[in-house]
Amino acid sequence: MINYEYQVGGSLKKNAPSYVVRQADLDLYEALKIGELSYVFNARQMGKSSLRVRTMQRLQAAEICCGVIDMTLIGTQQATPEQWYASLAAALANSFRLKISIADWWRDQAHLSLPSRLGEFLETVLLAQIARPIVIFIDEIDSVLNLKFGANDFFALIRYCYDRRADHEAYRRLTWVLMGVTTPSDLICDQGRTPFNIGRAIELQGFQEHEASALANGLIAKVNTPQAVLRAILTWTGGQPFLTQKLCQLVIQASESSVRGVLSLPTGSEGFWVEQLVRSHILHDWEFQDNPEHLRTIRDRLMQSQRAELLLELYEKVLVNGEKATEVSEHVELLLSGLVERSGGGLKVRNLIYKQIFSLEWVEKQMGRLCPYSQALQAWQTSQTSQTSQTSSTSPTGDSSWLLRGQALQNGVSWSIGKTLSESERQFLAASQAHDRQQTQIAIAAERSKAMEMQLKAEIQDLKKMLKALQQQRFWLICFGLAITGFMLLRG
Questions:
Q1: What is the CATH number of domain 23-201?
Q2: CB–CB of 130/96 below 8 Å?
Q3: How many Cα atoms occupy the beta-carbon half-sphere of 270 within 13 Å?
Q4: What are phi and psi of 135, to 5 degrees?
Q5: What is the DSSP secondary structure assignment for residue 125, as one 8-state letter?
Q6: Are 283 and 246 in contact (CB under 8 A)?
Q7: How far apart are CA 266 and CA 274, in angstroms?
Q8: Is the pLDDT of residue 385 over 80?
Q9: In 3-state terms, what secondary structure has residue 446?
Q10: pLDDT of residue 417
Q11: Residue 342: predicted pLDDT
């Protein structure tokens, strides 16, 4: 009897019975057999590495030489350009078991630039020693994007090898496969170079029900209705490979802890039983129970993004009303998080587990943590909606009492610098700045008016004092005149 084990995280072993054959298996194998450069770009824990292992096994059985470079082992943070390129050559030499002292050869080619040196290695060593078709798998390719010195030259070299097929027969035997969490447009960022627009994209989807049916074999003798339990599992996971394998493993553990070692579920109760399993072992206190890490990986990819606010706002739209799928960068980034998938031209949450954990309530909580003006923005948007419903205006201004002013505005603007804002955020900050300027001008005008009023009052007081002084002067003059008149009359 086959020892059936489910794999929760990591690559499945060769001939693992829990490996699920998908359309991507056929597509990638057929593309590589005819020497077509291919790439498999998708979210983490979608089975890319397991797909690589299984495809390499099939290609090697077809007399095609395969080698693999795991970019996480090459290093990206501390490696110098010299060390990095030399490590690539060493990885290829080890993977293909080439007869060469890589240290001596690399040193002898010091007169060449690093990309040229690696290109020379491919042509004069790898292609020279191996006469059969060659496939180079580069796994975790997104690690290259963290290089301090950039990887434009490396991807330009891959493109060069591809273009050399036209006039150099040996290069027709060399095929590349790129795997990771990225997009082709991210590979060559230099606007002065030809973009990385070659090769075939292999779409890697979650398990479809007809594909995953073999997973029920591991549930035989563990539950009395394995296929029904598997269907209930897929209802929650949407075929996401990691979660599907994990739930199958949880079913095994539940059966082993039962009295008889076999779960006997009443027909029709499988959905309810699996739901309780999901709630108790995945949803409840999910951050603590997320082991091996999966849900926290999705959370961190969203929240640590430079565009976290924009991604959360987009995801909120997907949750509420769905969103039309486009190739704009924020849509692609949300897809690469694994949280959503394309469906009928739109975006939808990948599965029910994600929808339960990354809910609207969760989104609002994260928005509040990230954005210092999130509550004011939401209230302002609500007031806009209210204005639209009450008037015929197509451009409601919103309740200005929710706009930022003074130090709050300064904090909001400072926080927004360097971030990609949504259109509503840009409108809110622009309206706040305009309103703040207007209120400042009103305040300045009021201060000026107050100053003029005070000056006028002071001048009036001065005039009153002058008038009083004149009146007193006039009184004394009259008194003096009367005295003179009386004196004259007495003398006469």
A1: 3.40.50.300
A2: yes
A3: 19
A4: -125, 125
A5: I
A6: no
A7: 13
A8: no
A9: helix
A10: 80
A11: 92
Q: Give the HSE-up count for residue 174: Cα atoms under 13 Å, Cβ half-sphere.
A: 27
Distance in angstroms (rounded) separating the CA atoms of residues 217 and 227: 9
Describe the crossing of helices 241-256 and 226-237 by its angle, rounded to 10 degrees. 140
463 compared with 107, residue with greater pLDDT: 107
Q: In what order do the strands lie in the sheet with 340-343?
A: 323-324, 346-349, 340-343
Task: Parse the chain into domains and list their residue ranges.
Answer: 23-201
Q: Which residues are CB-contacts of 298 (< 8 A; sequence separation ≥ 6)?
A: 43, 337, 338, 339, 354, 358
Q: Identify residue 255 by its one-letter amino acid code.
A: S
β-pairing, 174-180 with 134-139? parallel
Are 203 and 358 in contact, with CB atoms under 8 Å apart? Answer: no
pLDDT band at 184 (very low <50, low <70, confident <90, very high): confident
What pLDDT score was predicted for residue 48? 95
What is the share, in percent, of the chain residues with pLDDT greater than 90?
A: 57
Helix (H, G, I), strand (E, B) or coil at 427: helix
- Strands annotated E in 51-123: 65-70
Q: What are the residues whose beta carbons fall under 8 Å from the beta carbon of 193, sequence distance 6 or more?
A: 152, 156
Query: Quick check: 150 and 108 in contact, CB under 8 A?
Result: no
Write out the two tokens for 238. Answer: 């949407």
Strand 346-349 versus strand 340-343 pairing type: antiparallel
- Tokens 């954005």 sit on residue: 371
> What per-residue confidence (pLDDT) applies to 389?
63
What is d(CA 216, CA 11) in angstroms, rounded to the nearest whole number? 20
Per the document, the length of the chain is: 492
Which residues, 6 or more positions from 251, have their beta carbon under 8 angstroms from its beta carbon? Answer: 219, 222, 223, 229, 233, 263, 274, 277
Single-letter amino acid code for the residue at 231: R
Instruction: For residue 306, give the DSSP letter.
Output: T
Tokens of 159: 């493109």
Residues 6+ apart with CB under 8 A from 425: 309, 371, 377, 416
The more confidently predicted of residues 193 and 250 is 250
Q: Point out the least confidently predicted range of 102-106, 226-230, 268-272, 468-472.
A: 468-472
3 state SS of 358: coil
Helix (H) or strand (E) holding 323: strand 323-324
